[in-house]
Amino acid sequence: MDGYSQTELMICAAARELEDGRTVVVGTGAPCAAAMLAQRLWAPNLIVMFEAGGLGPLLPTMPISVGDSRTFHRAIMAASMTEIMELCQRGGADYTFLGAGQIDAYGNINSTLIGADYSRPRVRFPGAGGANDLGSLCWRTLVMTLHDKRRFVEKLDFLTTPGFLTGKGAREAAGLPPGTGPYRVITDLCVLGYDPRTCRMRVESLHTRVTVARVQENTGFALSFLEPLAETPPPSAEELRVLRQEVDPYRYVIGRT
Amino acid sequence: MDGYSQTELMICAAARELEDGRTVVVGTGAPCAAAMLAQRLWAPNLIVMFEAGGLGPLLPTMPISVGDSRTFHRAIMAASMTEIMELCQRGGADYTFLGAGQIDAYGNINSTLIGADYSRPRVRFPGAGGANDLGSLCWRTLVMTLHDKRRFVEKLDFLTTPGFLTGKGAREAAGLPPGTGPYRVITDLCVLGYDPRTCRMRVESLHTRVTVARVQENTGFALSFLEPLAETPPPSAEELRVLRQEVDPYRYVIGRT
Amino acid sequence: MGENPRAGEFFCAPDPDGLRDFLRRKPRDLIAKVTSAREAIARFVHDGDYLATGGFGTNRIPVALLHEVVRQRRRHLGFAGHTATHDCQILVAGDCLDRCDVAYVVGLEARGLSLTARRAFESGRVQAREWSNGALAWRYKAAAMGLPFLPARVMLGTDTFAFSGCWEITCPYTGMKLAALPALSPDVALIHVQRADEYGNAQIDGITVADLDLARAAKHVVISTERLIPNELIRREPQRTAIPYFCVDAVVEVRYGGYPGNVAYEYFSDEEHLREWLAVEQDPDAFRAFLDRHIFGVPDFQAYLALRGGETRLAQLRAEEMLDGPREGA
Amino acid sequence: MGENPRAGEFFCAPDPDGLRDFLRRKPRDLIAKVTSAREAIARFVHDGDYLATGGFGTNRIPVALLHEVVRQRRRHLGFAGHTATHDCQILVAGDCLDRCDVAYVVGLEARGLSLTARRAFESGRVQAREWSNGALAWRYKAAAMGLPFLPARVMLGTDTFAFSGCWEITCPYTGMKLAALPALSPDVALIHVQRADEYGNAQIDGITVADLDLARAAKHVVISTERLIPNELIRREPQRTAIPYFCVDAVVEVRYGGYPGNVAYEYFSDEEHLREWLAVEQDPDAFRAFLDRHIFGVPDFQAYLALRGGETRLAQLRAEEMLDGPREGA
What we know:
- By secondary structure, chain A is of the alpha/beta class.
- Chain A has helices at 6-15, 30-41, 81-89, 131-137, 170-174, 212-217, 237-247, and strands at residues 23-25, 47-49, 54-55, 77-78, 95-98, 102-103, 109-110, 113-114, 123-124, 140-144, 182-186, 190-194, 201-206, 224-231.
- In chain A, the strands form four sheets. Chain A has an eight-stranded mixed beta sheet with strand order 2-1-5-10-11-12-13-14, with helices on both faces. Chain A has a two-stranded antiparallel sheet with strand order 3-4.
- In chain A, helix 2 (30-41) crosses helix 7.
- Chain A is globular and about 45 Å long.
- In chain C, helix 2 (37-44) crosses helix 3.
- In chain C, strands 1, 2, 3, 4, 8, 9, 10 and 11 form an eight-stranded mixed beta sheet that branches. A three-stranded antiparallel beta sheet of chain C has the order 5-7-6.
- By secondary structure, chain C is α/β, with parallel strands linked by helices.
- Chain C has a domain at 31-116 and 186-324: Glutaconate Coenzyme A-transferase (3-Layer(aba) Sandwich), CATH 3.40.1080.10.
- Chains in contact: A-C, A-D, B-C, B-D, C-D.
């Protein structure tokens, strides 16, 4: 593994998407680690927000819950959910990170259920949570997820959170704020963006030793590939050091070795 | 004057309308004095609120402004204008007191302008302020005003704050909350209520030595009179003592003698 | 996923005029409302009621009150699943629910899914409607504002919208499409706070989540508080009042009343116990025994705390909250 | 009074997508924004802008900043007349306004009417639209929420409604009629607070009036503060943050910056000086001299305070605020 795990690689790749002087709404786990890593390396003015109300904390350790007291430790503001969601609704949130039970080619996400009958689902997932709000309102939505065919599907069982819906212009037609939408998907195989003409997912860089064929095999819909297709830069020694020693010293997220 | 002023009589008459365990939104001056008098005599649990955000203060002295620091001195809550207005909108405000530049038979109030041309009024008054909100949303609206023909008019120059609008059912038809509306008008001549069938103003009691003829002469529209027509009970010695010694010892409202 | 056949119908429909009439009659006297958890739940939570909880999943949630709801075997409750994690888990374990407005249920965030809660929703035993966290927070806010609905720019274009029952409206000025979120006024809200006086004036430390709006939106509010404080302390800092007394029907003093959740500046969550809850649900018999032991078999919340290690364990969680205790693995 | 021929047109029209684009580009870095009143007004208030002020008439209003607007002779401003009393009086005295959304103007509550302000509105020199205080507060709130409008149950059935330019809407669920209050996002808000850090994180003591929503609704915000505090004090009590730094463009430290108004827990209003303002307006020549002396003729607000009696007078007002000073007749 060249001295780093897939989780570490994903966190480092995600962190690089975050510019300084911007706001990011995160959950717990890998997205929070990515934001903390970016803060420590090049984005000291990246403001981290949590949907339950934490705004700009100095995170002493990884939060366990999106609402636990770490999320507003020495914060700029210990606010409310509506404060954060209204900030997003008026255009103040630059990035958000979401997970995905299922995701389709347009970046639409299912986190509600598996099955064909709403009233008797085969598997019930938690639901939209804050994901629908954040995916509707933040300027750029990033997804971190493992890459396999059960997740990357042609058709969602349930469209919980909007990506580009049915393609170009569909978000705006539905009433969602113009200029928002899916931005990156970071998996254990590659980093994907979206083709601006079609709004369909497009591979932008492959992780070391991953092939085009392997990515397509693990994806349930046709992908396009950016040309020339880059290799995802592996984590630098500095990134790994900060991630392991400062961001997640108790290895809550990057796991025990 | 039998040892009391018209202002003192009006304050005492107004205070008697306020039940214990209820909420009243007041401004400065006589309405605030009436609420304070009621609190001290029979309504210790009458909660006084101010539209700027003061909720349940222990008033140390008469406020000068609806937003000054007296209005939230040792209060239950130092809130915001939306907090108070939303409390009123969801039905939590029992009484409010309004003033009136002009008032018509249905209790509609003008506090905006005198003149026929909106863009070039003859006299500009302050405007709706919080009166429109409170008159729209509180359960019972009381007005305290001097009684003369320039104020009690057949037709308002501008309908700033809704009374019963054009009569029975008109408030509800306009979208205002059912069951709200004008309740009493307390003047230097009499106490008026509203005829439930017509929603027009009706004299309910005359102050000592005031005649029916004198009230009608000073009113620009036809009044009805409750039968039998009572005499407004004059201020009791106890009311006057508390008003003068505890409520307004500096005689801000009741005036210098 | 198709359309919701029940668009425009809600588990708890907007009725601002009804709420106005209710609040008009609700007493506003400054009277002492301190009582026990048992008495508060007996008086204010009835079979069939629509219930909502404050806090956020495992943070400042009213666990002592929820145990009492289960212990008194309330049935057929509606529930607002606004990031409802351990709170939802408790209510489903007690078989208290039959309908739920879902924003986030059956999971405990990164800790995993509650098998019992999943089965309750998958079997259809608990009926669901879909919302987002923001949408439910705004639905409380609409009711708190005395409105029938609030417009919002979320849920649009999704199955979440279709299965909410919401309708779209058009802005008269801009022509924008908006979701019309119907006001949500629960029959009763259970809210845990750090401090309250005997009348129900409550102070909250840290994030308030959706509790300010919830307390104003609900018809009845039961407050559990880490500690009672004199009214004089409320009046000394009137802008710290998060919930004014006239919203509140009962005040219950329960130290550690949010355990095993986190209460800011008081104690951190007991992750070990939360993991135990999730694990034991894998075996229905063991889970029944677990509930008998921890909820049905104890007279009150203090006995539950004693079973969990009492002051020794709580002192550890206090130390962890103050960031000077041991760090547990998540 | 008939109909408003300009229904649906507003001095400051709702444009949530425009506000989103603006706020997307607005910097969010934690950088020091401390500057002088002169520089802040020069940079952030331009001729023709739509302006709003925090506080309530004579309470916690940004007088030092308003004097600077007058001193720099800004013209053709729009203004949100949300219980605007002494603040409106100052701006009209400086001939700064040509349009105003009126809820309450030209009066100073029980103190009387400003003759200059009355004449400005009566002559048509300042154009007006009518609103209520609640309506303007909710218009800020709509913008702060990122919405094009908020529904409300006020102004209905009145000339106030007709001359606001508002439209009615119907609730899709209840059929209720509602006023659709258009979002109001001023170009610049001037807000006075008790404490702020160098980045603009602000704490407010006492009632917040409409300032929390206004700060979030406005495109630019200039804060004047009784005192600067270290960021560490903001972070020590994060729930005391009333206005977060990213809303704020400039921070001006002006001790007594709300004089002659009242600033809670700091100083009471100078009623004598407010009466003097009202009285001197009766004579146009005397009023010009009064303005020359107090605003145009002084370099900054400290010089104005010195003219008013300086520390001696301010100490009296501080004592009066603490309720241990002499009580003045109103």
